[in-house]
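fyi for ur records
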Amino acid sequence: MVKAHKKVSYIVCLMILISLTGVSIAYGQNDLPPPPSELIPDGADGGDQLPPPPGEEVPPPPGDVDNSQLPPPNPGSPSPGTSNGFKPKKETAYRDADNPFLGSLSDNNIHAQFVTNKGRFSVVLKGREAPIAVSNFIGLAMGTKVFTEISGRKVRRPFYDGLTIHQVTGKSTIHFGCPFGNGTGGPGFQIEDEVENGLSFDRAYMLAYANYGPNTNGSQLFINVVPRPDLNNGFTIFGEVIEGQEVLNKIANVDVDALQRPMKPIIIEKVEVYKVDK
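which gave:
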């Protein structure tokens, strides 16, 4: 009888022990943190959002020329000079007293030869139709006109020598004249438009000023190698290519990157301005 009682007590104790152990195990499991895969990141519940993962910035797709902006398609770019720590001033370049051809502009017998690492081309300057534009170009090209460098220093030297052709748009327009090589620089001043001068982009090989809107001409230029009547009345034409059209055709067909910049540098080595006796 005693043995039976001991056996019952043993069984009861064992059952109580198992019961207590089960409670302890269940409590311990509920107290554990969820596995890593179930953790909720900060912000998933509407709190502070996590920053997006870093991604590659894609350049804007190449665009066509718009009459409302600079021919190089750089939407949002500052006007020439404003990114350099100084604001461009308005100026009438026609009053440049140091221009050696000032008295001959209306004769339309002043030429400019551009020497590049791809060859040479020559332009007849239309001083009769665009005297302000022509005088400004001559002063910069020959180094008689003062301009402002990125440092803020005012200098006189041939402006275009050593610059690059910074953009070739759609195999139709060639852009140059930016001291920074990216379409945002200028000489530190701006000159007025001479748009309604009888010249047009109805034929190819016209030399004109690029701009960021009315009366914002500075040093940047472009040449169309195909007719571009869509550009009429938006940009000041002041010259026409008379020799070396094949060189410009070659430049217009070079390989360019996503921003339409030539893959290999095209350098304007020298610009020579001279008078042709008629």
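Confidence is low (pLDDT under 50) at residues 20-87, 91-95. thats all i got for now
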